[in-house]
Amino acid sequence: MPKAAIFDIDGTLVDSVPFHAEAWVIAFAKFGYSVTFEQMQKQIGKGGEFLMETVLTKAEMEQVGKEIHGYRKEYFQSNFLPKVQPFPQVKALFEQLHTDGLAIVLASSAQPESAQHYIDLLGVADLIQGCTTTGDVEKAKPYPDVFEAALEKLPGISAQDAIVIGDSPYDAEAAGKISLITIGLLSGGFSETELRAAGCIAIYQDPADLLTHYSDSPLSASSLNSAQTPL
């Protein structure tokens, strides 16, 4: 049985992916670049600099990359952050994990104020051991920095004793680089095929679905060798 659960936030615990995607569309348009919502949605979950590299040339990255990134951040914070809502049953899932003795850490590369906003929104401050923020992360996903930082908030717990729960292939790719296994959620807009190809050992619809099937999930199983797909 695992000793800790490490949760991604955006698209995993809160329904923010559409807002992030739209903010990127608006930011790119502001600087004369046309991208679609669907293009951006498939990039959410990786670091902004890596997302921009799918649209901009190296020269453009040097010229306007920081400005686009900054505009997107400000636009999201001002216009979309207040609209983000938690997925159902997140707190109940955390309470179940807490009852079973699992430590919980949130893995985020967001600014501290944004991370705290989500913790307050979810109402889980007393159920978690900590939350990483941008200052803990040198390189964003798909690099593993955010999960390495999360493990540092779990003294005495190794990667073999923890499970990541995320919504994107970038979560699984990053976690796998430091031998963490990942449960995938479909709540961020990626398909089961995409999540499994990235390395997720089990797939659930969202936190509520994971809670419903909790007793059969890798979070409570004595063995992590078999994948569960209760869809």
Overall description:
- The protein is α/β, with parallel strands linked by helices.
- It is built from 10 helices and 6 strands.
- The protein folds into 2 domains: 4-15 and 85-216, Rossmann fold; 17-83, DNA polymerase, domain 1.
- It has helices spanning 17-30, 37-41, 48-52, 58-80, 90-99, 112-122, 145-152, 169-176, 192-198, 207-212, and strands spanning 4-8, 103-107, 130-131, 162-166, 181-185, 202-204.
- It has a 6-stranded parallel β-sheet with strand order 3-2-1-4-5-6, with helices on both faces.
- α8 runs parallel beside α9.
- The longest helix is centred in the N-terminal third of the chain and has 23 residues, at 58-80.
- It starts with a strand and ends in a 19-residue tail after the last helix.
Summarize the structure.
This protein has helices at 17-30, 37-41, 48-52, 58-80, 90-99, 112-122, 145-152, 169-176, 192-198, 207-212; strands at 4-8, 103-107, 130-131, 162-166, 181-185, 202-204. With 231 residues, the protein is an alpha/beta fold.
Task: Trace the largest sheet across and list its strands.
Answer: 3-2-1-4-5-6
Write the CATH homologous superfamily of the largest domain.
HAD superfamily/HAD-like
Number of helices: 10
Mean pLDDT: 94
Sheet with the most strands, sense and barrel status: 6 strands, parallel
Number of strands: 6
Distance between the termini: 23 Å
Query: Which stretches are poorly predicted, pLDDT < 50 over at least 5 residues?
Result: 222-230
Query: Can you tell me the CATH architecture of the largest domain?
Result: 3-Layer(aba) Sandwich
